[in-house]
Amino acid sequence: MTDQDNFTSSDHFVLDDRLERDCINVIDLALSRLLMMNDRQYPWFILVPRRAGVSEIFQLSEPEQLQLQRESTHVGRVLMDMFAGDKLNVAALGNVVAQLHVHHIVRYRDDKAWPDPVWGKHPAQPFAPAEAAALVKKVRAALAPA
Amino acid sequence: MTDQDNFTSSDHFVLDDRLERDCINVIDLALSRLLMMNDRQYPWFILVPRRAGVSEIFQLSEPEQLQLQRESTHVGRVLMDMFAGDKLNVAALGNVVAQLHVHHIVRYRDDKAWPDPVWGKHPAQPFAPAEAAALVKKVRAALAPA
Fold first, then answer.
1. B74 close to B143: Cβ distance less than 8 angstroms
2. Domain ranges, ordered by start, for chain A
3. How far is B111 from chain A (nearest CA, A)?
4. Could you read off the pLDDT of B50-108 as tens digits, one per residue?
5. What is the pLDDT of residue B111?
């Protein structure tokens, strides 16, 4: 049995409308869907555990929490390596979108919002479609198990 | 062997000066030190894994990462229960203080910063010393293993 087998049951998970609108789909990991925020100002990715009705990490089962931690670490390492960031910001806020989602934002000492958090600082600057597609393809390949 | 035994080796951990200045010590869990931000505007607590030279969660060993997740869940549940919050904000940012620290902030739909994140919104309003001491005592008791 692989990890994948443990976490496939998706009950009645439907991605939140706002996340659907603001993000681009990257890949489904064992537990979580990985999204890319459609904002070219930062490498900004979001893990959404495919579980319905969950808004806090502590509402996941313990195996799900540990899997989310593993996926967060995997995604975080790959992103920091690929984008050569200075710092990773990892956050589960959820004040606006209640569906549990965990931001992973690669930060640079010379990015537009540094050293502040990115939320609410600058309006999103959407990617050109081809640019987004190329980036998603690259991240997807880097995340795939060897 | 208990969890406590696994995580006592503290190598050369020293709490960051800024955290020391801005926070009040609450308790040492197996891996992390729990601090309370000295700001009476929000129930705002911070977990600091007692490991030197670590600024990203993914730099911890896998057992340490999973222990941090367990401590985060324990602290998050206790705080949300005690303070009857509407949402918990959990975040490892570290743009200003590099030492790995994970914010746990109980949010209310009518708090001063809602729905924005709390960082940089309003200058801290320190507790009166007796008020802080009473709160820390209460949180410490709630966190203690039954």
1. yes
2. 3-141
3. 11
4. 999 999 999 999 999 999 999 999 999 999 999 999 999 999 999 999 999 999 999 99
5. 98
Give this prediction's pTM.
0.94
Among the partner-chain residues B77, B88, B92, the one whose CB lies closest to the CB of A90 is: B92
**Mutate which: A87, A97, A100, A107, vs B, most B CBs within 10 A:** A87
CB A51 within 8 A of CB A100: yes
> Does A37 score more than 50 pLDDT?
yes
pLDDT in tens, A63-96: 999 999 999 999 999 999 999 999 999 999 999 9
Q: Closest Cα partner for A65 from B107, B34, B72?
A: B72
Contact at CB, A93 and B91, closer than 8 angstroms: yes
Architecture of domain B3-141 in this structure: 2-Layer Sandwich (3.30)
pLDDT on residue A8: 65
**DSSP β-bridge partners for residue B87:** B107
Say how far apart CA B56 and CA B58 lie, in whole Å: 5
Q: Is A119 on the interface with B (CB under 8 A)?
A: yes
